[in-house]
Amino acid sequence: MTIVLTPYWSNGVQKLKVAPQPPAAPKRGLIPAAFDRDVHTERCLLQLRSKDKGIEKYIYLSYLKNEDPAMFYKLCLEHMAEITPLIYTPTVGDACVNFSHIFRRPEGLYVSIKDKGKIRDVLQNWPRIDEARISVVTDGSRILGLGDLGVNGMGISIGKLSLYVAGAGIRPESTIPICLDLGTNTQRYLDDPLYLGLRQKRVSDPEMEAFMDEFMHEMTATFPKLMIQFEDFSTDNAFKYLERYRKQYPVFNDDIQGTGAVVLSGFLNAAKLASAASGKPLSTHRILFFGAGSAGVGVASQLMSFFTLQGLSQEEARRSIWLVDSQGLVYNARGRLAEHKKYFSRNDYQGPPMTSLLDIIDYVRPTALLGLSTITNAFTTEVIEAMALINPRPILFPLSNPVKLSECSFAAAVEHTRGQVLFASGSPFPEQEYQGKTLYPGQGNNMYIFPGLGLAAILARVSQVTDTMVEASSLGLANSLTDEERSLGLLYPQVNRIREISAFIAKEVIRAAQKSGVDRSPDLRNKSDAELISFINQKMWKP
Ligand SMILES: NC(=O)C1=CN([C@@H]2O[C@H](COP(=O)(O)OP(=O)(O)OC[C@H]3O[C@@H](n4cnc5c(N)ncnc54)[C@H](O)[C@@H]3O)[C@@H](O)[C@H]2O)C=CC1
Ligand SMILES: CC(=O)C(=O)O
Ligand SMILES: [Mg+2]
Predict the structure, then answer these.
(1) Which of 94, 259, 297 for mutating ligand 2's site (highest number of atoms within 8 Å of CB)?
(2) Which SUPFAM superfamilies match (predicted)?
(3) Which residues contact 322 (CB under 8 A, 6 or more apart)?
(4) Fold agreement (2-249, 257-445)
(5) Candidates 3.60.110.10, 1.20.1250.20, 3.40.50.720, 3.30.360.10; correct CATH number of 257-445?
(6) Res 20 pLDDT > 50
(7) Residue bearing the CA closest to ligand 1, atom 37
(8) Which of 118, 263, 441, 513 lies deepest, with the highest CB count within 10 Å?
(9) Is-cis flag, bond preceding 428, omega within 30?
């Protein structure tokens, strides 16, 4: 028997048909005589390309995913570089902002504060309880860099799960996009008659805490084989709920851990090239973070392992990192600091607040400048030039999403470093020609990590996601560059190899889970690496 995704309506939820294999041929007369599935692939692609705007392409692809999921995922796999920016960042940002306006039919699960006390009843309405393996859960409070989008944040859970299917072959019917509706503080949504969420301000912290405790408990009770990815919670809640549940349930926070892993990976590759140019050892890198939120501090914590891999002590590693937030350089003498910034706060600077990025660069003399601030073009011409003056090959990672919030463009980075930049951004930029050479931007986005990490967690049936599993995903990604990709100067592998990369990452993560003793699939322990890779490939769903 094969589960065939047949999205049709019934009582407001999508249902599945369980069909015998092979599916019955359509009845004579119901399709045109010359209909051919391969030709239809081309037709779908032409229809997609005929649309001018990203958001129109997004709407077309959403329709296709609902009507013909196999065709949607076939297109994704065959045209990964073209389609990823349409179903994910940057276009998914527009789709989320306008979610209540472009909405056509429900997808995923909405759990609201009104369901408190009866969350189990809501979860049990999910039509595919037994198949459920992975859920992306957001509360919509910090969607990409776009702020509090309330229930419109559902678009991000849907987009990430499409990448789980396309990128790691998770079965579509095993995914559950979830948006928690805890209100929104965005007035224009509260005033919008089309807004799909509750018309109330966000609930208080204690109310949210009680809700989250019930939600997590009931999720595990209802879906015993489920892995949970927290996505785009506002800063404090991102740290708080990761810490609260990470030892209790199989859960990870993509913005803290997934981003940390993907940036560590690209940084490892960039730092080698930078050190080769400067002649300075890897251990002497100095990293300046512009933005000290969940992503900035998540990446800083992960980059600690870069330095410890070079033989530095924890303390030496910590001292190689500087944070900047909206008040400027983060240092102890500045006054009260949010909990998550304290570890990296500097105690070696006592002067007045330092707020100009140029002054901070002059003071820190960083080898790498990483942007996770949501401040468009914060890396000005002068900032990029200052980095190029200190470093023969400056590392510039403007990682904020979507593309309109990027701290700088690839074109600007190439121009103002005379082609020497080692670059990765959160959303994709086009390649650049410089003095007759083609230069390729990296995409430092957690989409390289979470599909493989999630697949590993599902196959090894882990009880929790450990730091060593996250680090293994990162090193796995860094080591998956081919010689050809290295010769092109790439920091990340080409996205069209995503399934191969996810399989490799999954193998590394499963091994790390086994070492940590959090795996619950003992038969995988006996497999050689080659057998494990082949097992993983064989488990991947193919459209
Ligand atoms: N490339 C990737 O894979 C990922 C990218 N991101 C992006 O990173 C950005 C930040 O995300 P989070 O850390 O979760 O948000 P956040 O809201 O937790 O953090 C934002 C940080 O930027 C700082 N900031 C704001 N204005 C500033 C200014 N004028 N100067 C200096 N710093 C300023 C804030 O003080 C805060 O520390 C978002 O655009 C998000 O899309 C997040 C996760 C993954
Ligand atoms: C990529 C991602 O997770 C973000 O920008 O929030
Ligand atoms: Mg995110």
Answers:
(1) 259
(2) Aminoacid dehydrogenase-like, N-terminal domain, NAD(P)-binding Rossmann-fold domains
(3) 286, 287, 288, 289, 329, 330, 344, 346, 360, 364, 366
(4) yes
(5) 3.40.50.720
(6) no
(7) 292
(8) 263
(9) no
Reply yes or no on whether the pLDDT at 24 is more than 80: no
Binding site per annotation, positions for a divalent metal cation:
231-232, 255
Tell how far the Cα of 85 is from the centroid of ligand 2, in angstroms: 13
Q: What is the pLDDT of residues 332-369, one digit of tens each?
A: 999 999 999 999 999 999 999 999 999 999 999 999 99
Ligand nearest the Cα of residue 231 is 3
How confident is the model over 141-154, as a mean pLDDT? 98
| 426 C-beta closer than 6 A to ligand 2 | yes
Cβ of 250 less than 6 Å from ligand 2: no
pLDDT digits (tens, 9 = 90+) for 181-238: 999 999 999 999 999 999 999 999 999 999 999 999 999 999 999 999 999 999 999 9
Per-residue confidence band for 93, with pLDDT thresholds at 50, 70 and 90: very high
> In degrees to the nearest 10, what's the CA dihedral of 386, 388, 389, 393?
150
Q: Sorting pLDDT into bands at 50, 70 and 90, what band is 11?
A: very low
Q: How far is the CA of 254 from the centre of ligand 3 (A)?
A: 6
Give dist(CA 474, CA 479) in Å, integer: 9
Respond yes or no: is residue 116 known to be catalytic.
no
Strands (E), 164-208: 175-181
Q: Tell which one of 94, 97, 299, 374 to mutate to probe ligand 1, the residue whose CB is within 8 A of the most ligand atoms.
A: 374
Alpha helices in 169-319 (DSSP H): 187-190, 205-222, 235-245, 259-278, 294-309, 314-318
DSSP state of 446: G
Domain 2-249 class in CATH: alpha beta
Q: Any idea where the domains of the chain sit in the sequence?
A: 2-249, 257-445, 449-524
Token match 């599909």: residue?
A: 451
Cβ atoms within 10 Å, residue 42: 10
Confidence class of residue 164 from pLDDT cuts 50, 70 and 90? very high
Mean pLDDT across the chain: 94
The catalytic position among 88, 164, 331, 492 is 88
DSSP states of 89-127: TTHHHHHHHTHHHH--S--SEEEEGGGTT-HHHHHTT-T
Nearest-CA neighbor of 502 among 493, 511, 490?
Answer: 493
pTM of the model: 0.94
255 lines ligand 2 (CB under 6 A): yes
Q: Taking residues 63-85, report their average pLDDT.
A: 97
Is the Cβ–Cβ distance between 45 and 57 less than 8 Å? no
CA 102 vs. chain centroid, Å, equals: 23
**Which band of pLDDT confidence, cut at 50, 70 and 90, is reported for residue 3?**
very low
17 in catalytic set: no
Q: Which atom of ligand 2 is nearest to the CA of 258?
A: 3
- Give percent of the chain with pLDDT exceeding 90: 94
